[in-house]
Amino acid sequence: MDTNAELMLKKYKMFSIIYDNIFDIFEKIVFVEKDKNPRLLLSKKIQEEGEGLDILDVCSGTGKGSISIADTNNKIIGIDISPHMLALANKKKYKLKIENISFMEMDVRKMDFPSDKFDIEMVSFGLHEMEYELMTVVLKEMHRTLRRGGKLFILDYATEDRFILKQIYSIYLKLSYPEHVRKFLEYDWNQILMDIGFHMEGIQKCTISQIICATKL
To answer: Torsions phi, psi of 188, nearest 5?
Structure first.
């Protein structure tokens, strides 16, 4: 296992103990406007794609993203490199008696799935954790495993214009994340996705975040 993977595993082994508690509080404070709540909006977008679909949730962590779309008649697989985060995801899944989600330990840089398998792939608040080169490797692997015409949804941090949220967000980033996260906020997503083989459908602005929608060409 390489150094980046080892560091990520150590980070999330420690972080998994408090992860859900911290982010539940954070999201309740920040995501108060339902029409700008990124998780609610992403869930709605995926519901609009229909049912009977195979969905992959990349960097699924403790299952927040997967569980938020579980009330559809779709088959959802969540993958993550951290067994500790996945243990929490499975605990929540069984507690909520959700049957259409499976969580699997997997390196997202080289997925154990055939090409063109999934109808929809999503990644929620995961790409900002990666340096640019690693992020593009993951996106290329998502492109490989997504069927032609399939939808890609990226939910992640974005710049915020409203003053109070902007100040809170700025402090949060400085305390929580390394320098490359601030670079992440300036990426040209249209160019990045086009270079990989996606067609940008659009970007929806949410509270301190955005939902990027693209289609595999």
So the answer is: -90, 95
Burial class (CB in 10 A: 0-12, 13-18, 19+), 120: buried
CB-count exposure of residue 100 (10 Å: 0-12, 13-18, 19+): middle
Give yes or no for a contact between 70 and 76, defined as CB atoms under 8 angstroms apart.
yes
Which contacts (CB < 8 Å, 24+ apart) does range 32-39 have? 33/207, 36/205, 36/206, 36/207, 37/206, 37/207, 38/155, 38/206, 38/207, 38/209, 38/210, 38/211, 39/64, 39/65, 39/68, 39/124, 39/155
pTM of the model: 0.87
CATH ID of 3-16+52-216, from 3.10.50.40, 3.40.350.10, 3.40.50.150, 2.60.40.60: 3.40.50.150
**pLDDT tens digit string along 177-216?**
666 677 888 899 999 999 999 999 999 999 889 999 999 9
The 118-124 sheet, strands edge to edge: 101-105, 75-80, 54-58, 118-124, 146-157, 209-216, 198-206
* Residues 6+ away with beta carbon under 8 Å from 21: none
Collapsing DSSP to helix, strand or coil, 101 comes out as: strand
Chain CA centroid to CA 86, Å: 14
Residue pair 146/116 in contact by the 8 Å Cβ criterion: yes
pLDDT digits (tens, 9 = 90+) for 151-161: 999 999 887 77
